[in-house]
Design goal:
The chain has a single domain (7-143), classed as AhpD-like, CATH 1.20.1290. 63% of the residues lie in helices and 0% in strands. The protein has 7 helices and no strands. Residues 17-96 form the Carboxymuconolactone decarboxylase-like domain.
Length: 158
Amino acid sequence: MDARLDYSADATAGKAFKYLMSAGRAIKESPLPATTQELVSLRVSQINGCAVCIDMHTKEAAAAGETSVRLNLVAAWREATVFTGAERAALELAEEGTRVADAAGGVGDDVWARAAEHYAGEQLTALVMLVSFMNTANRLNIITRQPATGGYQPGRFH
């Protein structure tokens, strides 16, 4: 599969990506734990079917110390016992924040309350921003059919 657009060859994309990547760095540098960020990024990308981001965030998570067992269970996190309460709340918020069309009311109050039990202030803000950021990145890649070659190297975008 060939990409429909080459973002690096387009001036408008270059300008927009500069700001998008800056937002991504700000989220990455937030107090939200790195492993939580990668688990959430991976789950959002799984839901959206973004192979490029699945490749990237699986490798980034492993580089951050995540285990293959937990990475393999992210797609079935509700039935898995390997995630903390905080991680489960983050994954639940990520799912409802990604499936807004499926969950007619958006993120439910109960889901928000569970996330707020574990994350406050900057961490909660970073979690919300991360879910939104990943949905944007996924959609850019999916619309333009960016191929996943499997060649992503951790740290490439830091």
